[in-house]
């Protein structure tokens, strides 16, 4: 199941940008962070796909959601200008950002290529 992050939980589970200047992933397994808003149509289209992936990759990756309306500081920290935007965080490499409502097959390819996780 996808988990909603606040700034506090983001600092704990993903990246403490207040403490570290350089990227340092805080999680145990790679993750995807979906920056969304409740009013965003494409965000609503991608939400069930992320839920499916969350179940299919359970224990291998975490899928988090950040409400850009409520977490404006977090959105600003990652220069989110359009939604949905997804941040793909591998365990030991730099994160990569993608924008738009990506189809499931493209998300699965990114999970394998960027996050290094197979089903």
Describe this structure in words.
The protein starts with a strand and ends in a 6-residue tail after the last helix. It is globular and about 35 Å long. The chain is an alpha/beta fold. A hairpin with a 6-residue loop joins strand 4 and strand 5. The chain has one domain: 3-Layer(aba) Sandwich (Glutaredoxin). The protein has a five-stranded mixed beta sheet. It has helices at 7-13, 41-56, 72-77, 104-113; strands spanning 3-4, 31-36, 62-67, 85-89, 96-99.
CATH architecture: 3-Layer(aba) Sandwich
Radius of gyration: 13 Å
The biggest sheet amounts to: 5 strands, mixed
> Spans with pLDDT under 50 lasting ≥5 residues?
none
Q: What's the SSE pattern?
A: EHEHEHEEH
Strand content: 15-25%
Helix residue percentage? 25-40%
Averaging pLDDT over every residue, what do you get? 96
Number of strands: 5
Provide a compact summary of the structure.
The chain contains four helices and five strands.
Question: How is the topology of this model organized?
Answer:
Elements: E1 3-4, H1 7-13, E2 31-36, H2 41-56, E3 62-67, H3 72-77, E4 85-89, E5 96-99, H4 104-113
Descriptive key words:
5-stranded mixed β-sheet, Glutaredoxin, alpha/beta, 119 residues
